[in-house]
Write a sequence for this structure.
């Protein structure tokens, strides 16, 4: 940690004490973990205190840490066997809820992440608050502190099912009113829950069971420095070409 980052970290620790946990500083942006009970109080202080003056909330989103830190890829031994190689069938959409992978080093599943900007000090800050209950994730709203949080929190509610207590108009913003589930949760099925189409006879949109079969496409994995590696076949072909060229030059000479 450089001197500037350490000074910023010490300033947060001195002001908030045990109410926050100062995380890593990446690209000049420090991360603060804030408890759900201190979420609004800390955010209000970050906005109003002259030492901080984080006037603008630039972004807010939800995060699902289900299976965080666990890898489903076996790329070390995988070879050129097609797009489905190396899959252990534990990724999002490929496991039963009863067999869901648990995060390795994260106690709570759902978190809210907010990004702040201070014009006076020309600084950015990342805040994170974990919802204590996985079954019903609830975090206090920030609308009264930054009005821009309104639609951000509605999006997090719609996509992740995170409830923002005290929000003035918490309802879906991207999906339909009759939509079931939250699409950005890692256990949400890749094919969805229902199909939607317009029925001309009924004159309205109807919901039907999904008719397509689940299909998972796994992208090709490029291992470290693979772009600089050449297959043995290519090496042998190059060697033969060089040998033939050298032989031709000797014959012509």
């Amino acid at each position: 940690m450089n001197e500037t980052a350490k000074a910023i970290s010490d300033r947060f620790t001195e002001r908030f004490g045990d109410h926050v946990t100062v995380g890593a500083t990446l690209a000049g942006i420090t991360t603060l973990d804030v408890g759900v009970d201190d979420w609004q109080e800390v955010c209000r202080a970050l906005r109003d205190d002259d030492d901080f003056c984080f006037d603008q909330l630039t972004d807010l989103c939800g995060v699902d840490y289900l299976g965080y830190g666990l890898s489903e890829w076996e790329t070390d031994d995988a070879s050129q066997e097609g797009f489905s190689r190396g899959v252990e069938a534990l990724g999002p959409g490929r496991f039963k809820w009863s067999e869901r992978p648990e995060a390795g080093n994260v106690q709570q599943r759902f978190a809210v992440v907010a990004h702040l900007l201070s014009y006076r000090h020309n600084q950015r800050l990342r805040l994170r608050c974990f919802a204590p209950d996985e079954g019903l994730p609830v975090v206090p709203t920030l609308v009264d502190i930054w009005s821009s949080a309104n639609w951000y929190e509605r999006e997090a509610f719609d996509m992740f099912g995170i409830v923002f207590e005290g929000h003035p108009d918490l309802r879906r913003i991207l999906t339909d009113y009759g939509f079931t589930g939250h699409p950005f949760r890692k256990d949400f099925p890749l094919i969805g829950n229902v199909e939607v189409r317009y029925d001309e006879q009924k004159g309205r949109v109807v919901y039907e069971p999904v008719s397509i079969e689940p299909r998972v496409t796994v992208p090709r994995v490029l291992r470290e420095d693979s772009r600089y590696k050449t297959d043995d076949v290519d090496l042998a072909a190059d060697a033969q070409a060089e040998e033939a060229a050298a032989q031709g030059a000797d014959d012509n000479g």
About this structure: Strands lie at 20-26, 29-34, 56-64, 110-118, 123-130, 138-140, 163-165, 194-199, 204-209. The domain at 3-252 is CATH 3.30.460.80 (Beta Polymerase; domain 2). The radius of gyration is 26 Å. The chain has one domain: 3-252.
